Amino acid sequence: MGRPALRSLRGLVCPRCRESKPEAAEGTTSLVVCPRDGLALVAASVLADADGDPFLGTTIAGRYVVLGRIGAGSMGAVYRARDVTRGHDVAVKVFRGDRGRGAQALSRLDREARVLSMLRSPHTVQVLDVGEIVYGGEDALVSPTVSRFLVMEMLEGEPLGVRLRREGRLSTVEATRIATHALLSLAEAHDKGIVHRDLKPDNVFIARLEGGAEAGKLLDFGLADLGLAPRDPNDALGWGRGPIGTPRYMSPEQALGEPVDARSDLYAVGALLYQMLVGRPPFVERDAARVMEKHVHEPPIAPCEAAPEAGIPRALSDLVVRALCKRPEDRPESARAFIAAIEEAFAGGLGRGAARHASGGREATIRRPSSRVPSRTDNDGSS
CA gyration radius for the chain? Predict the structure, then answer.
């Protein structure tokens, strides 16, 4: 007798045998285990979206019960899991060693775990645990597979990329608040010699807090430069093999494959702020090489000219153009200097009350209407 079709299932389901408990509500907070396979039952809708994922329903490190998949890529996936020790949900990123880019994936996760363990800013996603998963190898002729996992705080909300795809552009106040949050995260990272190198809309998460407030948090430090020398030409992340990052948000020096410092991240924040204000990145081309060429050679159209209907203050527009200068020495000298310049631009363009609202006392939050309906995460990183 074959397994029941996924579309016919309701309630909670075993990922392996598909035995279901229709009477169990999908939103239940208690764990239910399949008596036959020993796996945790997951929501039928979750199984429909991620059928065949080997981690659904399993328990990682004897502690993290995988209840759903948040997103997936070529090197692994991110899951929602229940920490049975603490009784709350966490996000578990698994980089699988059985994929074609296994060495690169594991190197990237190791780098991210190392970086996040050094950072404590409330505007940086927090790491809670890291470890290895060994599975397979029961057959003597087949070696076991080693994957690594990273446990992070579970964030409710949506990536900036999702919001931009839905809304086009953001208000001046909201855009500068999100940029300020990103810069607060970067200020701590830069103080410790860490350059993110892959700032883009999908790596800025807008977390929903209690009371309807929101706070921006930086994600994915897997491509970060830790400032270690000498560079290893055999590094799995590709040192010495061309540009690393996302073309639409690369600094000119990054696009050229040259060494980067903190000011490269500030250029990327400038590109993000440009997109939030205007509704598109400073350079939009289908060909990645053409985009990088424009970053190197072509000045951007000033935001207030690219979107005159948006009412962008001239002082803020000028600051964005300054952040997008081709020479690093012409940009703001640090993340904190960038924040101060945003406040100054607001003080000159919209009044000092707006400047205080934009900075929110540094560790700021954003208030949004409660009627917003979150969209599902799109992980293509091309926003």
Answer: 22
For 127-134, which contacts have Cβ atoms below 8 Å and span 24 or more sequence positions? 127/151, 127/152, 128/83, 128/90, 128/152, 128/153, 129/61, 129/64, 131/60, 131/61, 133/60, 133/61, 133/94
The residue ranges of every structural domain in the chain are: 15-153, 157-367
Residue 168: count of CB within 10 angstroms of its CB: 12
pLDDT, one tens digit per residue, over 110-152 is 888 899 999 999 999 999 999 998 876 555 555 567 788 999 9
Annotated active-site residue 89? The verdict is no
CATH number of the domain located at residue range(s) 15-153 in this protein: 3.30.200.20
Torsion sign over Cα 181, 81, 152, 218: negative
Which of the 8 DSSP states describes residue 139? S
Q: Please, are residues 204 and 177 in contact by the beta-carbon 8 Å criterion?
A: no
Catalytic residue among 83, 89, 191, 198: 198
Confidence category of residue 107, pLDDT binned at 50, 70, 90: confident
Contact indicator for 70, 79 with CB cutoff of 8 Å: yes
Q: Which option is the CATH number for 157-367: 3.10.450.50, 1.10.101.10, 3.30.10.20, 1.10.510.10?
A: 1.10.510.10
Residue located via tokens 């019960």: 65
> How many residues in total does the chain contain?
383
Tokens of 65: 């019960």
